[in-house]
Amino acid sequence: MRSIRRVVTAGLVGGAMALTAACGGGGGDGSAAKADLGAGAGASKPAAAPTGAAPKVSKAAVSIEPKAGSVDVAPNALKVGATGGRLTTVKVSDKSGKEVAGTIAADGSSWTPSAALAVGTAYQVSAMAADADGTVATADSSFTTLTPEAQAKASDNVDNNATYGVGMIVSVEFTKDVKNKEAVAKGITFETDNGTVVKGHWFGDRRVDFRPEGYWKPGTKVNVHYRLKSVEIAPGVYGGSDRDEPFTIGRSQISTVDAAAHKMTVARGDGQNSEINITSGSDDHPTWNGTMVVMSKEGTVRMQSSTLPGMTGAPYDLQVPHSMRLTTSGTYVHGNWWARNSIFGGDNVSHGCVGLKDAEGGGDSTSMGKFYDSSIVGDVVIVKNSIKKETLAPDNGLSGWNVPWSAW
User: Fold this and answer.
1) What is the pTM of this model?
2) How large is the angle between the packed helices 28-41 and 2-23, nearest 10 degrees?
């Protein structure tokens, strides 16, 4: 009977303690109950009362790779995932507090950064996930990305804030072979003010050219975004450059050379079209057929027959005015001051270039002088009906317009 009485007394004391805590007072009954409980338990201090149910443990688990304290981490190695629940919050930031943009998957199982992390940078990661009951699990990590030992320079043919013709192709060349071409393509993006879509096409392992499906619309504002510094373009080699290069597409000027008729038709967007007598490549040195783009305006250029492979006929060494390069291999549209007047519009005598009447040293009022002044880099020059039936290679200059969009 004595053991039973102790149990009942303990139950009553529990009720008394709860009342004391709620009211904040002390009565004779409460004191006696506490003393009785202490003596019964054999403890020197009063036992703590239960405060509620044990905290729930989430069925969700958050995983972060790399582990905390990792160094020399690859910029694309960050992985955040959840099992037994869904990710609710992921925050990744560098030591300055700048957050890394990213997206939680639709099923909540993973988080992916929008771009590779920066190299040589310390990061902190905090992530939360909730199970079906809403109970939350958390995880944290901190790590430092690697510092590249090898970099490749990427250069292009665009100047900041310059204006180009509607045929402009942006050509990017790397100083080292690119193995991870997909990652590089994602690291070079084009922003246009009118939604023009631009795609890249690789010529070998070091050159990628970009263009839209058709010629640019006059007035288009373009900004090329390079985000290659943290892109591993080949094992152990990084792109080394983050920069923006804005440019504008100017008026339209498309010139069509009919080699058989010895004429060039110049069509401008403002409707001021014209036809100019020309001379193009001879039977021994015909001009390439196909679509070309003015690569550069070079002014007066020294042209020598000794630099032309397979050259036949009398040797020459001339200072050629108003020279505009069309191909890497040396095709120009340029001024010609040494041929007789009847050649223009009547015969093809050049070594592959397109020649317009000019004065020695270059005359502003001559056919070539006027054409030169009206032209800009990126203008289109199309050659047809040349005796040489082949179309020039698309990587010879900015000649990618000769590749169908479906194959670009």
Assistant:
1) 0.79
2) 130
